[in-house]
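User: C-alpha cells for this one?
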Amino acid sequence: MSPASRTPYNMVMPRDDRPSPGEREGVFGPGWSWAAFFTPWADGRPSPRYRWTLFETAAQAVDDLGRCLDDGNVGRRGALCSSVLRKRGAPRELVLCDAADWACVVHEVRAGIHVTEAADAYFTRWRTSMAGHRFTIINAGVPTVW
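Assistant:
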C-alpha cells in the first residue's frame, strides 16, 4: 500500500459478484477518481477495478494512480506507465492505455453520482470515440495517454 493512499490497493478490485466495500459505503461525488479497465477492447464490458476514493483535484487522482502503478498493482509494466503518466501531467480527465491489456481513466465524479457510474460512463464514451484508433493504441508498443 502506498503511504499516500486512503484505502489499500487490494480493495480496488471486486473479487466476486457481491457488492464491493465502495458500493456499500456509497462513494458519491463531487470529486475526482480513477479506474482501471482490463481488456478494454474485448467485446462486452471490460473488467473494471475501481478506486474507492475521491480526490479534490484531477492532479491528486493522477498522482495516486501513478503511485499505484509504481507499486505494481495495475499491469505488468506499471513503472513505465507511471513515467509516461507523470510526463503527461493531468489538468483534466485522461485515459492511460497499455496496449490491449488495460486502460486507466482519471475522471470527474459529479455531485450525487456514484464513483462506479462516473467511471463506467467516461470509459464507455472514450472507448466509443476511440474505436477507429484502437489498433494504433494496441500496436503502439508503449503506454499512451489520450
